[in-house]
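Need a sequence for this fold. Nothing fancy.
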């Protein structure tokens, strides 16, 4: 599923000129305050319900607030008591998960290479030995240090990409207008609410 850079990420597509009713502005303010309160609870170390709060946060930040703010033609609502503004902004997150089937992971890594992003793939070479083969393992270690050749124990090459490096790379490609198969890369593109501290 090929996707282009979404319209909302293009600065020339934003129009915040229309005004909303008092009821809608009050509702937007309530949502923004709820979002700020949830973020404050998440930072408390004693919080037992952290997964539930994070789920609430994501629902507010990535769906409810952006959708509601669209409905009232704004991208920012102030929360004066907290000294912050809740702002809707572009959101990109990508992660080639370790629990994906190996075939799906390999397809994602080959796709990164096709995109010219192979240099963000971390590679780990693992060689397994049976119990009691410590001498063989030490010998192999010496061979690896001295040569590029393997041994009779077939190595396993493990690839990974840190989610934050992958996310930054995907975001940069989208900003360049590159057409990407986001699903293959475990990428999500949308908008999210964010907290912006007010300048004093």
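Here you go.
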């Amino acid at each position: 599923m090929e996707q282009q850079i979404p319209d909302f990420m293009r600065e020339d597509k934003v129009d915040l000129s229309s005004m909303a009713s008092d009821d809608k502005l009050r509702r937007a303010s309530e949502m923004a305050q709820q979002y700020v309160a949830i973020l404050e609870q998440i930072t408390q170390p004693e919080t037992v319900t952290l997964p539930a709060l994070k789920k609430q946060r994501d629902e507010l930040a990535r769906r409810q607030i952006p959708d509601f703010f669209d409905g009232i033609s704004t991208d920012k609502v102030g929360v004066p008591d907290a000294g912050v503004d809740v702002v809707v902004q572009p959101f990109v997150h990508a992660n080639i998960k370790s629990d994906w089937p190996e075939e799906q992971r390999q397809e994602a890594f080959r796709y990164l290479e096709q995109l010219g992003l192979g240099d963000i793939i971390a590679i780990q070479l693992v060689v397994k030995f049976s119990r009691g083969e410590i001498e063989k393992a030490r010998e192999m270690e010496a061979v690896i240090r001295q040569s590029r050749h393997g041994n009779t124990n077939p190595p396993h090459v493990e690839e990974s990409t840190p989610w934050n490096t992958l996310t930054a790379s995907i975001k940069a490609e989208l900003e360049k207008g590159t057409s990407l198969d986001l699903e293959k890369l475990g990428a999500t593109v949308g908008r999210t609410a964010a907290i912006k501290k007010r300048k004093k």
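For context: The helical segments are 22-42, 50-71, 102-114, 134-146, 163-175.
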